[in-house]
Design goal:
- With about 140 residues, the protein is α+β, with helices and mostly antiparallel strands.
- It has one domain.
- About 45% of the residues lie in helices and about 15% in strands.
- It has helices at about 10-60, 70-85, and strands at about 90, 100-105, 115-120, 125.
- The longest helix is centred in the N-terminal third of the chain and has 52 residues, at about 10-60.
């Protein structure tokens, strides 16, 4: 009597393996998307925090914050924030409020959350846009 052996996998076994791989891939891609948005937020926060030093360098050169937002170093930092994924970045300088400035950028992970730094030393996440280019003493501070 001759015995025949079949080698390989059955169709059911292959389908089960493919289903398991698909489930694991969807879990991994979900975690990867969260990591991407958190990484983009970190880049935006870093760009905005660097603007504090740029603002102080501008003040050292000009003894005022007037027209600071049009300085090339500040516009480059704002471009870096928007390049990192921020949909909105705003700068208000001493042309509206004497000796005051504020800069904010929208974060990627939450469309309603912004990161803001200002001349008072504030460096914080705020809910919604908190500064504007309309002028007035309240416009050059975060929150």
């Amino acid at each position: 009597m001759k015995r025949t052996y079949t080698s390989g996998f059955t169709l059911i076994e292959l389908l089960v393996v493919i289903a398991i791989i698909g489930i694991l891939a969807s879990i991994a891609l979900g975690a990867l998307n969260d990591s991407r948005s958190k990484g983009a937020d970190a880049a935006i926060v870093s760009s905005i925090n660097n603007m504090r030093a740029q603002a102080e360098l501008y003040y050292d050169d000009n003894n005022s914050y007037v027209n600071m937002c049009s300085d090339s170093n500040i516009t480059d930092a704002i471009a870096a924030a928007t390049g990192a994924g921020s949909a909105d970045a705003t700068c208000v300088d001493g042309s509206h409020v004497t000796n005051a400035w504020a800069i904010e950028a929208q974060l990627v992970a939450s469309s309603t959350e912004y990161f803001c730094v200002d001349s008072t030393g504030a460096s914080e996440r705020v809910s919604g846009s908190s500064i504007s280019n309309t002028g007035g003493s309240e416009d050059a501070v975060c929150g």
